[in-house]
Amino acid sequence: MADTPKPTPRVRMPATAKAGEIIEVKTLISHEMESGQRKDSAGATVPRKIIKEFTASFNGKQILKADWHPAISANPYQSFFVRVPETGTFTFSWLDDDGSVYKAEQKVTVG
Amino acid sequence: MQMPQQPKKLMLSRRTALGTLAAITVLPLAASAAPEQVIAEIKKLYGDKKAVEGKIKIDLPTIAENGLVVPLNFEVESPMTETDYVKAVHFFAEGNPNPQVANFQFTPMCPKASAAIRIRLASTQRIVAVAEMSNGDLYTAAREVKVTIGGCGG
Predict the structure, then answer these.
(1) Nearest-by-Cβ selection for A71 from B98, B105, B112
(2) What pTM did the predictor assign?
(3) Once rounded to an integer, what is the mean pLDDT over residues B124-143?
(4) Residue A111 has what pLDDT?
(5) Exposure pattern of A7-27 as b/e (b: 16+ CB <10 Å)?
(6) Contacts A22 to B, Cβ<8 Å
(7) What is the DSSP string of B23-53?
(8) Which residues of A touch B118 (CB under 8 A)?
(9) With b meaning 16 or more CB within 10 Å and e meaning fewer, what string describes B20-46?
(10) Are residues A105 and A90 in contact, defined by beta-carbon separation less than 8 angstroms?
């Protein structure tokens, strides 16, 4: 599917926090999450193409990893909670079936 | 594993398909993951280890009008410290073509073992969760969801 636009990740979380504060992170990425179950108009199965893995890290250290299967809805959303120990950068990455990796970053300042 | 209610032909194709996802997608649309398959998946992960009911709070609508987008929210009771935390949470669907839904690997850096996602459900069915604690204990919980319009292509 060469004509589908490149998935765009979106992350919503505060840019500042108190040391040790617990904050909620909301993530969303545009992706069709083709389940491999659908048939096209000619009756042929549309091949599976999903984002299979999501990871969240803080200053390079992994905090959470999720494996997604075809039962995850299109434009996958995931929210979760993190603790902000110090000023640093959260990185989020999504791994596609085709090997592409989509990334997003958010710096959080402890003030 | 015995699947007595399945016709013989389907049983054979399922047996050969085990393990390869590519082969699983070849299965007819009508084939769904039945409770036995969910049990088999859990067995693959944890063998014969017993899971105790409790500790997992699953938030799902009782009735989902659109099976394509069903909000799922969960939290596993745990202090989430270096020595006592939730290692993994797995979700399975008994009525989807593929029993696996998602799994989450948490670390002590997570303040709580909680997340929210949106899932596809093919039909009215039970969602089963299994949580693995850092000491190896297993907990389980299940929720029934009534689905008005299935979310499985077609």
Answers:
(1) B98
(2) 0.84
(3) 96
(4) 83
(5) bebebebeeebeeeeebebeb
(6) 111-112
(7) HHTTS-TT---HHHHHHHHHHHHHTTPPEEE
(8) 72-73, 76-77
(9) eeeebbebeeebbbbebbbebbbeeeb
(10) yes
